[in-house]
Each structure stands twice: as C-alpha cells, then as structure tokens.
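Researcher: Here's a chain I'd like modeled. Treat it as a single chain, no partners, no ligands.
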Amino acid sequence: MAILDEMQFLERVQFFNGQRLFANDLQSLEEFNRKMRWLHNQSLHQPGVGSGYAVTGNIGDRQVTISPGYALDSLGREIILTETLTQPIPPVADNGSGGSVFYLLTVSYPDDADLKASETRAGICAQQGVVKLREEPVFCWVRLNDNDLNRQPVDPNLKLRITNGLFIVLAQIEVFNCKLKQPVSAAQRRNAVPAKQPRVACGVQAPIFWTADPPTMVNVPLLDEIGSLILTAPINTSAAGFSATPFYTARLMGSRLFPNSDGLPALTDALINIVTNPAPGPQSFNLQVFPFSQSDVKVEQIKSDWQVAWMGIES
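Model: Modeled as a single isolated chain. Structure tokens:
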C-alpha cells in the first residue's frame, strides 16, 4: 500500500518550553521523519538494489556470501546489510526427477515484530525498557518451477511479493545434491538504478505540410521530376521525454495510389530527408518530403492522407 494512501492528514510535531514529554511524543516525531523519508524513496526511486548486495558462490559450495548493501522496496523502506553474511543454500538433492532445483535469493524489510532489542535502559520510576532495535534484512530462498523457458516462483504468495517489489531479487542459484551446480547468477537481480541503455520512443503524426521551395507551387500538380517540389513537415517528439537529442528515423505512411484528373489511380510516392539546419532537438525535428507522381495528382491529396511514423533512439 502506498504511504499516501495511509495518510488522512499531515501533522508536524512541535514542542514548547516547559512541555512535559512522553515516549509517544518522541515516537511520533521519529515516525513522521521516517514516513517522509519513505515517501521520498517511494516517489522518486524504483524498488531494487541501490548498491552492494553482491552474492557469490562457486560450483560445489553449500553456501553463498552476501556483501553489505543498500536496497529499497516498493514502500520506500531501506533494506540495509552492514556486514558480510554467509547464507546456507537449501539442502535439496534434486527436483524429484533427477534434475537440478532452482532458487531465487530475495531480501526484504523486517517486520516490527521480528526486530531484536539491541539496547535496554532502566526507567526512573518504571521497569526496564527497550531503547534501540536492530534492523536486519530478511533473506528468503524462493523455489522456482522446472520450466526452462519461464522459471517462476512455485509459491504464488512469494511470487506476488516479488512482483509487488516487497521481496527484492538478488541472485539465482542451481542446486544439485545439496551443492551449487553452477556459479551464482546475478542476471535476475533487480536494481533500483535504471540500467544505462538506449531510450527508444516512436510515434505517428499527421503533419502539417507547407511548401518550402518554390513557395508559389502549392496549388500546382506534382511533376515527374524528383525534387521539383519540396514539402516540409514539423514533427513534434516532446511526448517521448528525450533529455538529449536522439538519432531520428522517419517514414511516410499512407496511400501510394491517388486519383488523377481523369479519376484513374496514379502511383505517387516521395523521398524524405531529415533537416539538419536547423538541427533536430529532443522535442522536434523537421522532415523534407520530395514527392513525385506518374500523373497530375494534386498536392492537397497527399497532404490530407500521408502521415509520418518516426522513431528516436537516445543513447
């Protein structure tokens, strides 16, 4: 559940000189700051591993080693491991048919009931109480099915927790005879930081053509000679959200047969060119269209029918 869904209103804790403070007052302050931090994480970051949490293990090992790390779940909660940890692998011989067994290693945020007291103090007029709780991440082996093409968690509840970003996948292992059959695989790992990869977006736009050269030929028939008439189409790509100028490609969509003055279909096509002056930008580019036809097809006919399909690749 999103943190905002739990909030009916927002209250900021405030103190005054001479106020008598109770434990609940300070707990409210700590809870307010914690929920604001979780709300920030939930709103601006995706669940996954932020840093560390490297899982290593070689063929024949009966345990894996997990390095210190920082991760976020879908509720914005920080899952922190502060020291290197060894985790025994599930002690299974095979899958019941003589084959290997596959598991995902996941990490999750501990429930409050699972937290252990790390410091207690005696009260002035009361019994001893807990003042610090140790937060330790919870690791879980999630068994996968035997489908080589689509391995999924066998337990539907665990699968749902992984899908919802409450269990963060760190690695996958293959177990046979209670030992690792292959080195630990990190390909299934879920990262909070998006991978650096090309951003690809595309769209279709019905362009507004106008004559670029020569400007007086807007109402004359298209000629057989390629380049005798140049149309320019401004293409808006702002919806793609590019932050840098991508590499653009474009093509014309629409009919290639238009009726001429005799009512007969005439083949009409065009060459296209992306204008470099002015240069394309993250939100738009200009397209030059060089139409040609077998007969006397009017400019207005292609202007109302053709569309531009474009694609941008931002590296």
